[in-house]
């Protein structure tokens, strides 16, 4: 049946899934995308949105998305159902474009210094992320937060955690 449909069957080892590089790379991409969307323990609720995003991203080598290859045209995403008035949009965007053109780029930072952080830039921080050390699940984020900063010390921040602890 596969020959009649023009499908090439390729067998992979079920006992050594690491040998199938394409599948493992997709799993890594899927897990990274789920981590960015995940706000609670139920990852299954976010899975359709993550898969929609992955299927509509153009492939670098083909310059088309997976959905375009399947359906022959790009998918209409939820934000594209309403056709905005192009003249009204351009009149609202023009002031922002002129503002962006006047912006001066910041000088490059050098990461080869021996200091671990730039203390002066952290003094003005209003929110921080706290690294979760130790064992964490495959879909858990490495950082918790953002948490509001209460006070700034020489080498530490005090902030309110979700459970009311400092």
From TrEMBL:
InterPro entries: Integrase_cat-core, RNaseH-like_sf, RNaseH_sf. One of its GO terms (molecular function) is nucleic acid binding. Residues 1-94 form the Integrase catalytic domain. GO terms for biological process: DNA integration. PANTHER family: RETROVIRUS-RELATED POL POLYPROTEIN FROM TRANSPOSON 412-LIKE PROTEIN, RETROVIRUS-RELATED POL POLYPROTEIN FROM TRANSPOSON 412-LIKE PROTEIN-RELATED. This is Pol polyprotein. The lineage of its organism: Eukaryota, Metazoa, Spiralia, Lophotrochozoa, Mollusca.
């Amino acid at each position: 049946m596969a020959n009649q449909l023009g499908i090439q069957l390729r067998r992979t080892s079920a006992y050594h899934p690491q040998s199938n590089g394409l599948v493992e790379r997709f799993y890594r991409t899927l897990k990274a995308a789920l981590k960015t969307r995940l706000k609670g323990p139920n990852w299954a609720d976010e899975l359709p949105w993550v898969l929609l995003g992955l299927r509509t991203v153009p492939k670098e080598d083909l310059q088309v998305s997976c959905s375009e290859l399947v359906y022959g045209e790009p998918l209409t995403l939820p934000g594209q159902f309403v056709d905005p008035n192009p003249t009204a949009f351009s009149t609202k965007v023009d002031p922002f474009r002129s503002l962006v053109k006047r912006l001066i780029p910041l000088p490059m930072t050098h990461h080869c210094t021996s200091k671990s952080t730039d203390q002066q830039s952290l003094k003005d921080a209003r929110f921080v992320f706290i690294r979760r050390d130790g064992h964490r699940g495959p879909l858990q984020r490495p950082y918790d937060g953002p948490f509001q900063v209460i006070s700034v010390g020489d080498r530490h921040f005090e902030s309110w955690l979700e459970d009311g602890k400092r």
